[in-house]
Each structure stands twice: as structure tokens, then as C-alpha cells.
Amino acid sequence: MPVLNTPFIIKKMDIKNRFLRSATVESKADIDGFVTDDLLELYYHLAVGGAGMLVTGAAAVEPAGKGFAQQICVFDDKFLPGLNRLARIVHKYGNGCKCAAQIFHQGIAGYAISYGAPGRGFTLRDIRPDDITATVKAFGLAARRIKDAGFDAVAVHGAHGYLLNQFLCPATNNRVDRWGGSLENRMRFTLEVYSAIRDQVGDGFPVLWKMNTSDYIEGGNEIEQYARVAATLAKMGVDLIELTGGVEKQAKLRARLSKEAGEHEAYFYWAINAMKEAVAGTKTALAMTGGIRSLPAMEGLLKKGVDLIGICRPLICEPDLPNRLLNSPDKRQSKCTSCNKCLFHIARQPLKCLEFDPFRSVLASVSR
């Protein structure tokens, strides 16, 4: 059975252990989407913290795809110098740590669907076919920039109610042309985005994909549909699929899923067998993200057949958690309580852990 400090290879990318830092928007870029020193400091601490691979927060592939005010952008070559600095910091200080940059498009609602803010007032049917084709091309060009910036892989956000997920989900895809209707049509945007990315980065560059296991909304996709999507992407050559879930009201959903997961901790543990079967016979690896906090749960996931353990919120409050669990006698589970305050904070302010913020008591004293 593999253990957490066992290396894992994706194509020629040697990941030193099984810890994958799963992406979250950091809101630490500047207002125009350029990498800042504050963002570089975040990735320095994550790199020295011991994870085998880091995935950055989502980078917008088009100006209209930006969902957060201080979000990384990658829709122009002018962003390359800052992105290159980020990749170099991870490589220089991460003791073999690998890094991927996540690319995404917010779609028709972005933050609105995922976290309950007011909607934007239009639907997928309002997007012209020419604009769909342009966005597909934008994903490919963004991936090429990620490669040119020195990252080890590109990661695609295809989950959580953003544009790729909106096309897949029958509850949000109301188109009646070749981009909507049947699952094959709804899947078309995903497959064309993947092909555009592969055309730009070549066969040797790893492409990672974040995908729902269930939308958890009325009229949404369930595991049967997502297993078919996973199987198709795996046959096309996607190198890793990161399993997650949900489209809206994420904080409430995660609280429910945590109770349902019990000792397994992982919210989407129940989907592993179906997704393993979907990618069987291919070289596509699986990662699991969501709710994982303790060493026994992580080891249980590896035993179940998951290849990489995705963690995000625990590394917000404890960026050196991988080093602690792998290289010290302190094997306590993450101190992250899954309070979800960090999720709402990033809508308007830079990412940080509010539960263990030393300045929290000071702020509380002046807010009464």
C-alpha cells in the first residue's frame, strides 16, 4: 500500500509525496490581476511546508472570466513575468515541490452560484456561438502561458458552478443548440477546451482537471453522468482528475457532507469506486479533495486507490501540515475546524484563516 511519503509520477513529473495543495482563490493579486509580493509570500510558505504539489488559485482566461477583484489573470502575455516568479519561488524553496496553475472562467454567475451572492441576470443561452469558440481558444492560450511561465502542469477548474461546470450541468445549461441538451452536447465545451489546451501545451505536459462527483442541486448531474465525463477525458489523455462536488451554497453543503462522511472524513469518498472504474485502463490518476483532516483518513484514501490527497483549508491555517505529519512525531490531525470563514473572506479581502488569526480578538474588541 502506498504511504503519504511515497513519490508519484505523472508523465515525467515526479511528485515527492502524496500531498496535493488543492486550489483556492487567494485574492492576493493586484486589482489588474498581476502577481504581488503578498501572493509570492503565500506560495513561499506553502512550498517550504512540505506538500508534493501546489495548485494555485484560479487564474482568469478572459477579462470577463474574472470572478474575484484581486484574482490572478492569465489572458495576456503581460502576466507571464509575475507568474514565472511564482513558479521559481516554489521550485527554489520547495525542496522538489511541483506547481501547477489553475485556469478558469467564472461563467454566467461565478461567485454567485458557488457562494450564494446575487446572480448576474443572464444565462448560457445568451452566449453567442462565436464567443464560445473564443473562450475555448482562450483556455488553450492560457494553458500555453502557464507552461511558458515555468509551471510543471496546468490545472483546469471544471467544477463548483463555474463555466465548464455550467455547460455540463443540465440545471444551468439551457441551450438548445449543439452546446446543450444531451450529455454528449453538454460535454462538448469541456472536450473542446481540453483539446485546445492539449494543442497548445503538447502531449508531454501534464493537464489536471477538477470535476464534480455530484452537483447536489435539483436537476443537476449525479455520479453516473460525471463518471462518463471522467471516462471520456481519461481516454483523451487528461493526466489527473481531482474529485470534488457541489454547485451552490458550498458552506452549508460542506457542513452536511462532513457529517455524512463520518470517519472517512472525505466528502466524496463514496464516489471513489465509480471514478476508479471510469478511468480504468488509462493512465489518468485520481485525487480526492474535501474534508480530509487526519492521517488515518489520508492513509485510508490511498488504500482505497486514490493517488493524491487534496487539502486546502488546512494549509490556510497550517501551511507546514505536510512536514508535520511526514517528518515529525506530531501526528495530530489538522487544527482546521472547517468553519468556512475563509471562503467568504476571499470574496472581498485576501485569503487568511480567521479562526486562528492572532488579530481576531483585537478586531472583536472594537466591533462591539
Topology record:
Elements: E1 8-10, E2 13-15, E3 19-21, H1 37-48, E4 53-55, E5 59-60, H2 80-93, E6 98-104, H3 111-115, H4 129-148, E7 153-158, H5 163-168, H6 183-186, H7 188-201, E8 207-212, H8 223-236, E9 240-244, H9 250-261, H10 272-279, E10 285-289, H11 295-304, E11 308-311, H12 313-317, H13 321-327, H14 341-345, H15 360-365
Parallel strand pairs: 3-4, 3-11, 4-6, 5-6, 6-7, 7-8, 8-9, 9-10, 10-11
Antiparallel strand pairs: 1-2
Short recap of the structure:
The protein has 368 residues and is an alpha/beta fold. It is built from 15 helices and 11 strands.
User: So what's the overall shape?
Assistant: globular
Look at the structure and give the CATH class: Alpha Beta
Distance between the termini: 53 Å
Name the CATH homologous superfamily: Aldolase class I
Please provide the count of β strands: 11
Describe the 3D structure:
This protein has helices at 37-48, 80-93, 111-115, 129-148, 163-168, 183-186, 188-201, 223-236, 250-261, 272-279, 295-304, 313-317, 321-327, 341-345, 360-365, and strands at residues 8-10, 13-15, 19-21, 53-55, 59-60, 98-104, 153-158, 207-212, 240-244, 285-289, 308-311. With 368 residues, the protein is α/β, with parallel strands linked by helices. The chain has a single domain, classed as Aldolase class I (TIM Barrel), CATH 3.20.20.70. An eight-stranded parallel barrel has the order 3-4-6-7-8-9-10-11, surrounded by seven helices. It is globular and about 55 Å long. The model has no long low-confidence stretch (mean pLDDT 91).
